[in-house]
Amino acid sequence: EAALDRVPAGVRHVPLDVLADREHGSIAAHMKELLTDAAFAREVLGDGRGAEYLRGSYRDFVLLPSARAAYRTLLRSLLVEDGTPVLVHCTTGKDRTGWAAAVLLLALGVDRDSVFEDYLRTNEMLLPAFEPILAALTAKGVERADLESVLGVRAEYLEVAFATAEDEFGSFD
Q1: Exactly one of 88, 90, 104, 105 is catalytic; which is it?
Q2: Which of 2, 72, 143, 171 is 20 to 30 A from 162 in CA distance terms?
């Protein structure tokens, strides 16, 4: 509500709630509080809890019915549309969107190493924008690694999604 999307005229908006079926909610729903309240950030992210949450999210991107439906809708729309550009985004544009980009790139024949390279580039492009917040929260006792575990990306997160897909379906394809 505080920062609504500004969708250009004539654009079809298709909200896809990837984590709608998640039992224990989404960190993204509490991003403002995480970035402003050091005690809350320590409680939610400390002792590796942030990284574990993200590993669980990447498993959920493959397993949850809501995630499967959302990604299916996205991919089908890309297959049947008339060449109209598509914008995919989420709260920080790195996890749900990162998995969407990885799936799309692999479907287009991009090799997995290049997909990981593209995904990890997120840290170079996004983390500097969070530097003032990172500095303020670390000054208040929040571990930088805990913050970066949710504000950045790690290869292990994408690896979890691929491994989950392979376990669930026999292979990524």
Answers
A1: 90
A2: 143
Q: Is 18 a catalytic residue?
A: no
pLDDT tens, 117-146?
999 999 999 999 999 999 999 999 999 999
Residue 13: φ, ψ to 5°: -95, 125
User: DSSP 3-state assignment of 140?
Assistant: coil
CA separation for the pair 121, 124 (Å, rounded):
5
By residue count, the chain amounts to 173
For residue 124, give both structure tokens.
């170079």
Tokens 């019915």 locate to: 65
The tally of CA atoms less than 13 A away on the side-chain side of residue 117 is 5
Structure tokens at 67: 């995630």
The owner of tokens 């992210």 is 45
Please classify residue 1 by burial: count the beta carbons closer than 10 Å to its beta carbon, then call 0-12 exposed, 13-18 middle and 19+ buried: exposed
Burial class (CB in 10 A: 0-12, 13-18, 19+), 99: buried
Give percent helix, percent strand, percent coil of the chain, each to the nearest 5.
65, 0, 35
- The answer for 8, left when phi > 0, alpha when psi is -120 to 50, beta otherwise, is beta
Amino acid at 170: G
Rounded Cα–Cα distance for residues 25 and 29 (Å)? 8
Q: In the structure encoding, which two tokens stand for residue 65, read together?
A: 């019915």
